């Protein structure tokens, strides 16, 4: 078995820190306001189809599987392609050789390798992704460890040591798949304890190779978790001081606020730096967060701790809230200038930035910029817009909200299909489709940003104070007075 490879989250969280000032909003239901905003009705257009190509450590002792893109393009998981036709346990339901459903226990046993069998890679990803809707990852880990130990114990009784040599690499490969694809599961001490116990059991054997591979797997996991902790600490640090900086902005705006054009006059450069931030934020989102974002609390379950443990979506929310921050930053930069011609020039600047984002393929920043220009405090500035060159308006008609579409697709798939069938089986057909959609994100987050970092520009984008919605309206009315009674009443309430 080859050594476990390691891919750590990209980006240096200590340089040009990945910080965001998160706009506050009232919570509604069990989903975060950031997720709620993405689920609100909006236009949709074409969507780039991205496919998943995660690394796979080739092993001569295991059945070889094609790339994820090829497997997820098919109608489902075909058991005849990747495993023996005999199931290791009952309780699985197939149609045309595609796995459609099964009892939870049968699906768990289907995940665990034995001497003659290793689960297909798409099955591993799909089950690890969806199983958290039915049980905690640490509960699944405990069951997997128990089954692995049982398989090892059966092999130990065999006089032929080759049986042991066959099962151990497969167990290690399953654990490597889990730690590489869902590393955040192992922030739970119960998960880590089970992993260490099983890893120690494998490393204590006669084979030196196993010991080395176990060490590589554990070191890689620890580095990933350390990078995540550092990233979250940096996010929290700025969030805690956001209120103070916004107060200074309101009382002495010129003391801390420069306009963005003095920091970065080139729209193409700004689009590049926005792309750095987008990809860095994406890279820290765990695929499981897309499932955990829509976990609904059982009304009969009074254990709030249990529910909150399954609702870990901090990195997904931080990414969505970056979208909100960028929208408010655009609106703030447009509403701040006193002179009409300066506001018009700022609008033209952001239109050029949006066009460069489109050319790069950074559709999320494109949509955030358009969203900022469409906010009411900006869109109501008729005299300002009259000075904007009309030739620049075409980019505003382009709508490709990739990330929001992904969130909506996952949400409506989750809401529209039952997790269990009437016979109590897990509806695995639903989870194949869920895995397909999340796999698109997995490819996108692996994109390497080809542009050089500009620390000064990134620092400005990530840390400069932005106005709240009320402050934006106030600045807008001060630039161009209220035109009707509704606007006049709102202006009075804000003064």
UniProtKB/TrEMBL annotation:
PROSITE patterns per the UniProt record, alphabetical: RASGEF, RASGEF_CAT, RASGEF_NTER
GO CC annotation terms, alphabetical: plasma membrane
Highest taxon listed in the record's lineage: Eukaryota
A Pfam family hit: RasGEF_N
Keyword match DNA-binding: no
GO terms assigned for molecular function: guanyl-nucleotide exchange factor activity
Domain N-terminal Ras-GEF, chain residue ranges per copy: 95-222
Keyword Repeat attached: no
Single Gene Ontology BP annotation: Ras protein signal transduction
Record keywords: Guanine-nucleotide releasing factor
InterPro entries reported for this sequence: Ras-like_GEF, Ras-like_Gua-exchang_fac_N, Ras_G-nucl-exch_fac_CS, Ras_GEF_dom_sf, RASGEF_cat_dom, RASGEF_cat_dom_sf
Transmembrane segments: none
Region listing for Disordered, in residue ranges: 1-41
The Ras-GEF domain, residue ranges: 266-482
PANTHER family: GUANINE NUCLEOTIDE EXCHANGE FACTOR (PTHR23113), RAS-GEF DOMAIN-CONTAINING FAMILY MEMBER 1B (PTHR23113:SF197)
Descriptive protein name: Ras-GEF domain-containing family member 1B
Species, as recorded: Cricetulus griseus (Chinese hamster)
